[in-house]
Amino acid sequence: MAWRQLFLISCLSAVVLLSILREGTAVSVGTRRLAGQEVQEGVEEKIFMQESDALNFLKKRGKRSPRSREKVNAEKRLKLQADELRREHHEEQRNEFENFVEEQNDEHEERSREAIEQWRQWHNDGLYPSYLYNRHHI
Length: 138
Hints:
This protein is an all-alpha fold. The protein is built from three helices and no strands. The protein is 78% helix and 0% strand.
């Protein structure tokens, strides 16, 4: 019977000890929760901006509201600059192509002139004009 009493006393002491520990952990978790909330509030202050800053941030031009003159002028300047760059690029490309075509034509004329010279030398019979096709037959 003594062992039953010993077992009952140990179970009872274990229940009392666990209940005390559970209350202690709840209190410690509660303080941690409060500390966590304070830390969270500090993080929220870092993440979220002040109301005045938020209003200024959201105070942007709507889709249908008119743009300011400065923005319109800046956009026009950017468009004009882009057009000028595009125009210069096309002019440069056109000049390069014209130079290429001119060189090709010069080479073609040179080859043609050499061929005509060779033909003239080959068909020269000492008469004037020296062209075979210009010879007058009487």
